Protein: Viral aspartic protease
Organism: Cereibacter changlensis
Amino acid sequence: MTPLPPSSRLRPAALTLPLLLALAACGGGGGSEPVREPTLERYTTNHNGFSRVRLNKASNRADDRVLAQFDDGNPASPAGYRNLIAEQEEVYRDKMFVEVIGQVENNGQIETVSRILRITADTEPFTNIESATGKYYFRGANYAWVSLDGGEVLSGAADDGLVNMMVDFDNSEMTIDLVTGSGVRTALLVPESKPLPFDIATGQFGGAVSLQVWDPNSSDILEAQGTLIGNVGGNPAYVDNAHGLATSGLYTISGRDEATGRTVEADGVFFGVHEHLLGTPVLPD
């Protein structure tokens, strides 16, 4: 596997979490270009110092050329592709950047997503305060793109789909509850009984997860495994009646449901802020 070279604006860092994806098949003979498998990356951006996680599903040089049009100094959306997360709420500005590049089809009435090319989630730098203690709670949005049995891509979204995320500075762990409703119903839950690691020095978190998908065309509720990674950014100190923390991350799922043998492929992105920034009571944790 050869990861894509990073943009000249970026400073890559080693990925420490496994990518639990099935290997993509290689291309055929006759000198055809091999199909690359997806890569999962974690690094710090050079242009603003944000903490980035990225899922890159570009499979060939043609995909690279499409993505380059989104990465240059004057980004453009080439025909048939667009950023699926074009608008972010005002509360998230200056705290994060989220981008999902997808290939889309439009029959004149309805636009559908045919595949995900890349997901990027950037979070502002994390301020490491040695005295930080206790639990911090986040809420926000969640988006997912799901394919069952190799079929069409189903798009799920919920503006409040980051139902709750908790990071525990005392125990260096985190939990998360993610859902989508429109298009396709999904649920990803990391309970307190099985938390994921949270690095209190860097704000990084992630690990192995499972996703449930409600098949819209049957009574099946499917489940498959994958990986979730993300970052907490901002300052955990209590300033101006708020903890100024933000979070963003992504997850990628690939596998078979044990009960039915059906395949589940899914990619998602989530982002949000500490609950104090959403207008909840301004009492310290």
Remarks:
- The chain is about 5% helix and 50% strand.
- Residues 16 and 42 are 8 Å apart (CA to CA).
- The first helix runs from residue 61 to 71.
- The first strand starts at residue 10 and ends at 13.
